[in-house]
């Protein structure tokens, strides 16, 4: 019985630590997404490209991308599926 109680305590502690690690990881990804979105928006505008222009050029290079994905990344209001890049 004591082993079961101790095992449950360890599992609870482990789950709490995992939750903290996930929150920290999410924060770092959110920072990266915002930074990436701002940089790509500035880069795109410096070239005089619309969001659709960038999406089309990426598609021509073999990266499946839609204008709405570019818009979301530039606005930094929604998580994007960066593995597409």
How would you characterize this protein structure?
- By secondary structure, the chain is mainly α.
- The chain has a single domain (2-84), classed as 434 Repressor (Amino-terminal Domain) (Orthogonal Bundle), CATH 1.10.260.
- The chain has helices at 2-46, 51-60, 67-75.
- Helix 1 (2-46) packs across helix 3 (67-75) and helix 2 packs across helix 3 (67-75).
- The termini are far apart.
- The model has no long low-confidence stretch (mean pLDDT 83).
Task: Supply the CATH class.
Answer: Mainly Alpha
Rounded mean pLDDT score: 83
How is the CATH topology named? Answer: 434 Repressor (Amino-terminal Domain)
Q: Based on the structure, what is the oligomeric state of the protein chains?
A: single chain
How far apart the termini lie comes to 52 Å
What coarse outline follows from CA principal-axis ratios? elongated
The level of helicity is over 70%
State the helix count: 3
What is the architecture at the second tier of CATH?
A: Orthogonal Bundle
Sequence-ordered SSE layout with sheet pairings:
Elements: H1 2-46, H2 51-60, H3 67-75
């Amino acid at each position: 019985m004591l082993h079961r109680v101790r095992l449950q305590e360890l599992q609870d502690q482990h789950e709490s630590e995992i939750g903290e690690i996930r929150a920290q990881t999410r924060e770092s990804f959110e920072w990266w997404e915002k930074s990436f979105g701002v940089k790509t928006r500035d880069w795109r505008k410096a070239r005089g490209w619309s969001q659709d222009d960038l999406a089309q050029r990426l598609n021509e290079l073999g990266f499946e991308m839609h204008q709405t994905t570019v818009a979301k990344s530039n606005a930094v209001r929604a998580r994007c599926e960066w593995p597409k890049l």
